[in-house]
Q: What sequence folds into this?
């Protein structure tokens, strides 16, 4: 067992549900989905974000991803060798009544798969949360671990695939298996959401397939592209704040500020 870098509590890697990890929504009794049909069943019956977060955080439906996330958690990157790794699916993070929904891709192996919170503990998250802080959408500019005091202001960040995939590349079958978790999450929050920001082309496609949105003409993804959705909602395209995009200058902090400034305004977040 190793000590959590902030709380000092000892944990196995991966973390057992209900053992005290900061923000762990599950308990030892939380139902575990072991195949695609069970994901559909549990997600479809979830009546609250709390229930959905708990069940998705213990899911074991994709054998390849379960093996990978747990192997990464046990082996660890050398720079984090003294830390426990979450090593489980990463549930959505933020408000349960968000006006702004941010859709990513999947957890990073040594980022969210280590810390247990979306975009927390990696370079992409450093860029994203700094931008969200500049836009007044979170209370602090850094996101280091799940006990660092970060709070969301009417935003929620979700991943269409909740386990870290090898090479950041989930298979089409894994994307399909995981999709009921996001569909169910969307149905639980969509009445509040005014704006969706899609981080990258895959997130854009996923957003356009959400329940109640699927069926509209599908505009092509681009940074800064705005798509009008049913019920007056809007979808904004934004390049993913990956290390590669930021390093090459394809995406700059100023471009992120433009997107999240517009998103905040359009979502009516004061
Ligand atoms: S990717 Fe999704 S469906 Fe597959 S094991 Fe992880 S949480 Fe479950």
A:
């Amino acid at each position: 067992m190793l000590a959590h870098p902030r709380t000092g509590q000892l944990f196995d890697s991966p973390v057992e549900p209900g053992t005290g990890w900061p923000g762990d929504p599950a308990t030892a009794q939380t139902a575990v989905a072991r195949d695609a049909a069970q994901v559909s069943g549990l997600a479809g019956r979830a009546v609250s974000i709390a229930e959905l977060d708990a069940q998705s955080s213990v899911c074991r439906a994709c054998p390849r991803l379960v093996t990978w996330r747990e192997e990464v958690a046990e082996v660890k990157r050398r720079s984090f060798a003294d830390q426990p790794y979450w090593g489980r699916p990463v549930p959505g993070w933020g408000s349960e009544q968000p006006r702004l929904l941010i859709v990513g891709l999947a957890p990073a192996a040594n980022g969210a798969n280590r810390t247990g919170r979306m975009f927390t503990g990696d370079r992409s998250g450093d860029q994203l949360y700094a931008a969200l802080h500049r836009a007044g959408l979170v209370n602090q500019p850094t996101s280091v671990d799940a006990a660092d005091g970060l709070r969301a202001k009417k935003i929620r960040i979700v991943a269409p695939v909740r386990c870290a995939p090898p090479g950041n590349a989930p298979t089409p079958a894994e994307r399909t298996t995981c999709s009921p978790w996001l569909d169910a999450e969307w149905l639980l929050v969509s009445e509040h959401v005014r704006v969706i920001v899609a981080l990258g082309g895959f997130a854009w496609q996923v957003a356009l397939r959400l329940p109640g949105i699927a069926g509209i003409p599908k505009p092509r993804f681009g940074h800064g592209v705005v798509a009008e959705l049913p019920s007056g909602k809007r979808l904004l395209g934004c390049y993913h704040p990956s290390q590669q995009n930021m390093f090459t200058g394809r995406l700059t902090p100023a471009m992120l500020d433009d997107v999240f400034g517009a998103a905040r305004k359009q979502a009516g977040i004061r």
Remarks:
- Residues 39, 56, 59-62, 65-66, 89, 161-163, 174, 177-178 surround iron/sulfur cluster (CB under 6 Å).
